[in-house]
Amino acid sequence: MALGLEDKKAIVADVNETAMNALSLVVADARGVDVTSMTSLRKLARENNVRLQVVRNTLARRAFQGTEYECVNDSLTGPSLFGFSMEDPGAAARIFKDFAKENDKFEVKVLSVGGEQLEASQLDVLAKLPTREQALATLAATLIAPVTKLARTFNEIPTKVTRVVAAVRDQKQDAA
User: Fold this and answer.
1) Could you tell me which of 38, 113, 108 has the C-alpha nearest to residue 80?
2) Rounded to an integer, what distance in angstroms lies between the CA atom of residue 123 and that of residue 48?
3) What pTM value is reported for the model?
4) Rounded Cα distance, 137 and 131, in Å
């Protein structure tokens, strides 16, 4: 069934809004992947707040105008499955990477983050980005490390004094 002009405008507006709010984009070719696998991919994407969309490339090019994903326009050939990460920049990359391991016909074509296009071979780089919680935990550990070390140092001084006094006491008792 052919899409009317109003339907196309609605699709472009929807994809544009998603692209404006997304942190990263991963584009894949899902030709040959069976329906059951695609259903499990969609479920996994929903759980990780990744928005999956299948859109014609011409409509996607229009939707990406004025967004940081305009850089992928030249790479849009053939059927495309768009995965927009909405909260965690590496979420779509992790999902697509794991899915590609299980499905030989699933191929990542291109990815983009921060207005830069990355090749599909750099999928691991994006997939290894820490989640927000992991980054905050690392930051907290880094911030608390000097305070912890200072507390240990202050605690060590009275402990050393106590050990020296005990050693002197033991030495005097042995001499007596």
Assistant:
1) 108
2) 17
3) 0.70
4) 10
